[in-house]
Amino acid sequence: KSSVWFCSSMVVSLFISCFHCNFENLLRVQIQ
Fold first, then answer.
1. What highest taxon heads this organism's lineage (predicted)?
2. Full-prediction pTM beyond 0.70?
3. Cα dihedral sign, 13-15-12-4
4. Residues 1-32: pLDDT tens digits?
5. Domain ranges, residue 11
6. Number of folded domains in the chain?
């Protein structure tokens, strides 16, 4: 059970970092 939680948390953090990166790129494009 613990390993499942760890795996899901890793996936969530990866997804959040990817979304954050895309969001920054979007802002950069709008500023330019």
1. Eukaryota
2. no
3. negative
4. 789 999 999 999 999 998 998 898 888 988 77
5. 1-32
6. 1
